[in-house]
Amino acid sequence: MGASTLPDALFGSVQYHPSISSCRHHDPIQVFAVKSLPTINRRTSGGKRKVLFADAWLCKPRHVIFSSMDDSAEALTDFLDDGDDNSLGSSKVIGVDDNELLATRKALSDARARNKAIEKERDQLLEKLAWSEAKQKEYLSTVMHDKDLAISELEAAEALFNNKLEESLEEKFSLESKLVLAKQDAVELAVQVEKLAEIAFQQATSHILEDAQLRVSAAEASAAEASFQIEEQIRSASEGAIFAVLQQSKDAIEKALAVAESAGDHTTKAMAAFVDNMGSVDEIISVQSQNIKLSNTVNDLESQLLVYRNDIDRLKLELNQARKEAKAYELRANDVEKLFHEFQESSRKAALQQEEEIKSSLEKMRKDATEKRKAASKAFKLEIERLKAAIEAARETARSQDEAYMRRCEALQRSLRAAEAASKMWRQRAEMAEDMLLKKSSSEEGDEEAIYSVNGGRIDLLMDDDSQKWKLLTDGPRRPTPEWMARRIRSLRPRFPPRKTHVSEAMTAGYKTLDLPKPDEVWSIAQEKLKEGDVLVEHVIEKEVIEKKRKALERALQRKTVKWQRTPEETKLESGTGTGREIVFQGFNWESWRRQWYLELANKAADLSRSGITAVWFPPPTESVAPQGYMPSDLYNLNSAYGSVEELRSCIEEMHNQDLLALGDVVLNHRCAHKQSPNGVWNIFGGKLAWGPEAIVCDDPNFQGRGNPSSGDIFHAAPNIDHSQEFVRQDVKEWLNWLRNDIGFDGWRLDFVRGFSGGYVKEYIEASNPAFSIGEYWDSLAYEGGNLCYNQDAHRQRIVNWINATGGSSSAFDVTTKGILHSALHNQYWRLIDPQGKPTGVMGWWPSRAVTFLENHDTGSTQGHWPFPRDKLTQGYAYILTHPGTPVIFYDHFYDFGIRDIINELIEARTRAGIHCRSPLKIYHANNDGYVAQIGDTLAMKLGHLDWNPSKEVHLDGTWQKFVDKGPEYQIWLRQ
């Protein structure tokens, strides 16, 4: 803005030259010139004032106002020209009318009012400027905070990367060291195996060789001994016989010689006598008789010699036979030696084969170790790549944040410069307007008027309400916000602090979060205490205390009475049988989670206890992906769809007050993960038991487990837990003990026990020591052509095998009996007896571990996978409640099916007869017409249309009274 003095020569004839400037709003700029006229106007009576101008200006200095708009800044420029009295040129007279003067004054007052408005607007602009400066400071602080956060996040990411890198390197070094140790262990193991194999082979071969040698030597010794004995016998016998024969022969010869000599002597004497005396005939006859005797003796000797020769021949035959036996022993020894050589050869081959197998196993171990090392290296590389990508993403994020920060700073600087320029411009305009509208000319003479040169009507443009220039002055140089800027503002708006409504508030107040009151500052009726000293309140409290003591005393007396009435066998608890007289109640169905179930179940505790039920089966208590509870996730979170953990504790406490066992439904086979792995697989567990893929079996096809193979069947809906891991078993044991000791459960119902070995169940039961345990081993029965097979031994054998695997520490649901009852109660009662005369389910083989049932939440309820025939429910309960085993009553049957009184009657019959899980059973009839059996000593029952009565049976002694008579459905008798 500038001012200059204009000469009089500029005032000539008036000419009008319209022109269009290049302003922002394209307003036409009109240029006026004033031409002097040689006219003199005087003051007349018409009310007009006229000022005479002659050759010279006879007036006070003229104020000529020029207005011009600059194209770039749209600033207003004022020019003030003070004329000279002696200036040359033609004269000019301007006449001003009174009406025009009034109009001018009115316009002046309007201008002053507008000036006040401009001042007010200026104040507002100043406030906006201050607010924008405060806003800019807040933006700058926010941007700096974001930058600091980004830098801290980047530093944290770098630190995390360094930690991860160090951990990865350490893990790599540990894996390499483990691999080296594993190789060394494998080599040492191979050497030890070879040594052990060599030692075992040497021991085995030496033992066999010594045994064979001992056998051969024993055979040779026995053969030599036998031959020696035989030869000795032969030699002794032959020598004895020969010696006896020789002795006898010698004696006989000597006798014969003696006789002969005596005979010769007699003969000589006789001859002498004959010669001499011619002896008598008697002597001759005696000599002849002696000769005959001698001949007989010789014959006897010859016969004895023949006998001895026969004995010698017999001994020779025995000797030959002994030699043959010795040869046979020798052949056997040769065979044994041959077999020994063959055994040596087979042992050598087996050793070679075992050595080959060991080598192949070592090679496999090397390959596995190499593959594991490669997999670990690959995983390490993938982890490095992922970390690099994360760092690059963090850097890119930081870079983008820096760029956004710089862009925001530049935009704020531009807006600040624009605001400063606008503020400066409006300040200049305000000063110009103030100088133009409020400036008064000092008067030298009081009656003389000031003369205004309006510059061709330019002042009218400034003061016209309809003028675009006035709008420009009042509204400022406004432009519509582009769409890209609006999007940028909307994208950046969430990062900015809340907008302040006033400039002073923006300058003084800082960014504050929502300050809510603390929970302990809020009044709650749950925390409100009773008023002390209130007589009515004290009476109410005293009454409640007395009532609690009375109920506790009644329960204690009832428990003592029941304990006195029970025998030691009844009070002894075993995890597989309980007391042996348990009657279990399944306290839920498939839709129970939709209501506050723990509260409802607690209200039924007294009713269940009065009915004769001894144990209540609770639904799964843990947090679950499915509301029914069979897809557990965080095992230690017991706030489930059935109620809170406090409600669960209260419900269990109420069961204990009514002498009922609380059985918890625990799912140990599978567990749902909380997070996904880098591969997108849900196998990362959260909560207190934060397991990883190493807790999942490796043969689970859906969840990429890294554990050992499963010891049972695979459950495909969730990760199958590897119970062979030591840390898994330890965590499960601690969790079960926590449920027992802190929550109050007395026993377990084990879900889907087909998924893992019964040996682990035995370990868990021994660690948690439950009062009763039931396993769900649900397997399919045998069918042929759509019909149920009569022989279901394979099915019940699988259940019995699982019970055996637990060491009998857990019972199992008798699914076999349930399936057979489906068909047997339709006039096929012959299915209820096997060829050995026992029941055809698990009850027939192991009744103390058989838990009989008709329906549960899976088979019945709203699922209806395998519902029991509804018209046969009473017959089914009459069967399981009168037979050995542990019966289970389903919630829907007891409360919703209208057969509660029938069930109570059957429970009473079981209780009166003293039926327990081991009660003896004798089946009398089982055919198409019906089924008859005696359970224990005091109960007999009949199903079907058979005409049978225990009183008519000869072998059933005592007096029998009919307890229940349901006609052709069933009948029950009790012995008096």
Automatic annotation (TrEMBL):
<keyword id="KW-0378">Hydrolase</keyword>
<dbReference type="Pfam" id="PF07821">
    <property type="entry name" value="Alpha-amyl_C2"/>
</dbReference>
<dbReference type="InterPro" id="IPR012850">
    <property type="entry name" value="A-amylase_bs_C"/>
</dbReference>
<dbReference type="InterPro" id="IPR017853">
    <property type="entry name" value="GH"/>
</dbReference>
<dbReference type="InterPro" id="IPR013780">
    <property type="entry name" value="Glyco_hydro_b"/>
</dbReference>
<keyword id="KW-0326">Glycosidase</keyword>
<dbReference type="GO" id="GO:0005975">
    <property type="term" value="P:carbohydrate metabolic process"/>
</dbReference>
<protein>
    <recommendedName>
        <fullName>alpha-amylase</fullName>
        <ecNumber>3.2.1.1</ecNumber>
    </recommendedName>
</protein>
<feature type="coiled-coil region">
    <location>
        <begin position="101"/>
        <end position="171"/>
    </location>
</feature>
<keyword id="KW-0119">Carbohydrate metabolism</keyword>
<feature type="coiled-coil region">
    <location>
        <begin position="536"/>
        <end position="563"/>
    </location>
</feature>
<feature type="domain" description="Glycosyl hydrolase family 13 catalytic">
    <location>
        <begin position="582"/>
        <end position="910"/>
    </location>
</feature>
<dbReference type="GO" id="GO:0004556">
    <property type="term" value="F:alpha-amylase activity"/>
</dbReference>
<comment type="similarity">
    <text>Belongs to the glycosyl hydrolase 13 family.</text>
</comment>
<keyword id="KW-0175">Coiled coil</keyword>
<feature type="coiled-coil region">
    <location>
        <begin position="298"/>
        <end position="429"/>
    </location>
</feature>
<dbReference type="InterPro" id="IPR006047">
    <property type="entry name" value="GH13_cat_dom"/>
</dbReference>
<dbReference type="Pfam" id="PF00128">
    <property type="entry name" value="Alpha-amylase"/>
</dbReference>
<dbReference type="GO" id="GO:0005509">
    <property type="term" value="F:calcium ion binding"/>
</dbReference>
<feature type="domain" description="Alpha-amylase C-terminal beta-sheet">
    <location>
        <begin position="911"/>
        <end position="962"/>
    </location>
</feature>
